[in-house]
Write a structure and sequence with these properties.
CATH architecture of the largest domain: 3-Layer(aba) Sandwich
Organism: Acetobacterium wieringae
Largest sheet: 5 strands, parallel
Number of strands: 5
Order of helices and strands: HHHHHEHEHEHEHEH
Low-confidence stretches: 1-7
Pfam families: B12-binding (PF02310), B12-binding_2 (PF02607)
CATH topology of the largest domain: Rossmann fold
Number of helices: 10
InterPro entries: Cbl-bd_cap (IPR003759), Cobalamin-bd (IPR006158), Cobalamin-bd_sf (IPR036724), Met_Synthase/Corrinoid (IPR050554), Meth_synthase_dom (IPR036594)
CATH class of the largest domain: Alpha Beta
Strand order of the largest sheet: 2-1-3-4-5
EC number: 2.1.1.13
Radius of gyration: 18 Å
Structural class: alpha/beta
Keywords: Cobalt, Metal-binding, Methyltransferase, Transferase
Length: 226
């Protein structure tokens, strides 16, 4: 990941936030973020640093160095960062949304950290984001798609078994005759390209920024999906 620095967000500050996040040091993370904001760092730069720290935490979890409690605490810290009054001020007055994203974590998957980061990045890019939450079934996604007519359905799935539930989403939309009215993007799966071919979704994102960029491309180049 590139370190996006300007005259204010220098490399040392960026790396300090990453390190504090990686160690799940809540007070230190909040203190550093507030310092960075006072120095003129953008919201995108802050979230980028937090995400990199979360990436490390995810690797530690996979290696067995961190447990579920650590993941939950990391998620809480991220939410606390987003609630900072100084951070909210950066994102005021964004105007009309450029598109609507229906966001969720797929059936039987209870992870929400990646989903939360994507939501923040999408909101910063001026999307309307409707977050259905975690453990969402294909039928629930279908019902909300019919009701809300999103431009994009963004699905997070960490578990390997998630591919079959995501395929069920695609199949349900096809059966309802509305698959061509919406794009589907998936993030978090370890199967990557093979997941796209098997599930029938439109794209797989390796990180949240790639995912948001793809969503923007669909909107700007193809207009609204519906």
């Amino acid at each position: 990941m590139n370190i996006s620095t300007n005259h204010a967000m220098n490399t040392t500050t960026f790396e300090s936030i990453v390190e504090a996040m990686k160690k799940i040091e809540e007070k230190k993370v909040l203190k550093l973020v507030n310092y960075a904001i006072r120095e003129g760092a953008s919201q995108a730069q802050i979230v980028e640093a937090i995400q990199l720290g979360l990436d490390h935490i995810g690797h530690y979890f996979e290696e067995g160095r961190y447990g579920v409690t650590d993941l939950m605490m990391a998620g809480i810290i991220f939410e606390e960062v987003l609630k900072l009054p100084s951070l909210k001020l950066i994102n005021e007055g964004s105007g009309e949304p450029i598109g609507r994203i229906l966001l969720c974590t797929i059936e039987r998957d209870l992870h929400d950290i990646g989903k939360s980061i994507f939501k923040s990045a999408a909101l910063m890019s001026n999307f309307e984001v409707i977050d259905l939450g975690i453990n969402i079934t294909a039928q629930e996604i279908l019902a909300e798609t019919i009701k809300l007519k999103p431009d994009v359905i963004a699905i997070s799935s960490i578990l390997a078994e998630g591919v079959r539930y995501i395929k069920a989403v695609n199949d349900a939309l096809v059966a309802a005759g509305i698959r061509d009215q919406v794009k589907i993007i998936v993030g978090g799966l370890s199967t990557h390209r093979q997941a796209i071919e098997y599930t029938g979704v439109d794209a797989f994102a390796h990180d949240v920024y790639e995912g948001v960029k793809q969503c923007k491309t669909w909107i700007t180049e193809g207009g609204e999906a519906h």
